[in-house]
Amino acid sequence: MAVSRTTRVNILIGNGHFLSHFYVLCLPPMFLAWQQAFEVSFAQLGMTIMLMSGTTALLQTPVGFLVDRHGARRFLIGGTLLMCLSVAAMGLATAFWQVLVLATLSGVGNSVIHPADYAILSGSVDKERMGRSFALHTFSGNLGFSAGPPVIAFLMALIGWRGALLSVGLVGLPVVMAILLQSRILVDQAKTESARTGMSLSGRALLTSRTMILFFLFFALGAMAGGGVQSWLVTVLHTVKGVDVAVAATALTAYMLGSTAGTLLGGWFADTFKAHILPFVTGLTILSALLILGVNWLPVPMIAIIGLTFVSGLALGASRTPRDMMVKDAAPPGQIGKVFGFVSAGLPLGSALTPVPFGMLIDRGHPELVLVLVAVILLLSLFCAGTARASGPMEEEAAIVPAE
């Protein structure tokens, strides 16, 4: 049976997105081995993640401008290749400074993924299936996060840390080759006549518009809340409710599984009920916040805690694809790369902001406030989403100037 063009596009884009997330979480299991091999501190080891993620976050927006101007395919192929080769080369490192340089280069490669992927999906997929394609894109990234630590740990036990990094890095080469050989089916985003002639909304004006700033904050606040749950749910359940650490870890796993599965539900809804995306996102975000508060306050048995965290993750995950569709709808034709490069930079920023302040709350004897703050942040994010949606695709007062 022939595979449809849309399915092939989803597989090609999804595989690259899987690798981008997979490689990020391949590094933490390396820390103990690297500490022994290079005699470095944990702070120095943490710089690998900081450099990789920080470089990605900083470069996503400028790469988005390049994607819009020159097309996404060449950047997707080159960025994915750089990402894979950098991770493979870490297996050959003889000094820790080399690992840091390679982590930075991997971050450079990773920075193309979001702007290029969304530009290609917007041009390659039928409008009736766009929500499901966006959902599969998010789903593949979540799978990459989930698979990274156990796969790399297994390979380290089997062939050592050098062999593990070489293996996972080189595994990406067939993905790059597949994208290259089938690049003809990856159609770039459509451009309006004004974009082709250079007379469109200035990139700077677009990204500093109220709509895009609010979407950036919506992404950042959502990531802040998610980062708080992922970093501290186990500690909070154990400290506040006396839950066994193993059960608390199971509750976190349930939350993550729910969040991953929810993306597929959100994709179906975004395609089926296009006119009701904002109410859907609003209702699910409120539900997720209430369930998190229930985990914190309700005197329920262990199995119920696991169930509440699963449904909370499911609700929040289901809101993610409609969120992405709202951003796509707000982006002017031909400028999707820079828009997604900018707003999705809020994700790593938000994830980086909350672990330390939440940890300080626990240090000061208030672990019960962590999940309350998570719920408040989620509700605050809705204000940004609703206001951005009401602003429309772009403000009428924004100047039309030669495109940057």
Layout of helices and strands, plus pairs?
Layout: H1 5-24, H2 31-38, H3 42-70, H4 73-90, H5 96-110, H6 113-124, H7 130-181, H8 193-196, E1 199-201, H9 203-207, H10 210-241, H11 245-272, H12 277-297, H13 302-318, H14 320-330, H15 336-343, H16 346-353, H17 355-363, H18 370-391, E2 400-402
Antiparallel strand pairs: 1-2
Protein architecture, described:
By secondary structure, the chain is an all-alpha fold. The chain folds into two domains: 5-189, Growth Hormone, Chain: A; 199-402, MFS general substrate transporter like domains (Growth Hormone, Chain: A, Up-down Bundle), CATH 1.20.1250.20. It is 79% helix and 1% strand. It contains 18 helices and two strands. It has a two-stranded antiparallel ribbon. α6 (113-124) packs across α7. The longest helix has 52 residues, at 130-181. The protein is globular.
Instruction: Report on the biggest sheet.
Output: 2 strands, antiparallel
Number of strands: 2
Assembly type of the chains comes to single chain
- Average pLDDT over all residues: 85
Fraction in beta strands: under 5%
Strand order of the largest sheet: 1-2
Radius of gyration: 21 Å
Defining key terms:
404 residues; Growth Hormone, Chain: A; two-stranded antiparallel ribbon; 2 strands; globular
Give a quick summary of the entry.
This protein is mostly helical and 404 residues long.
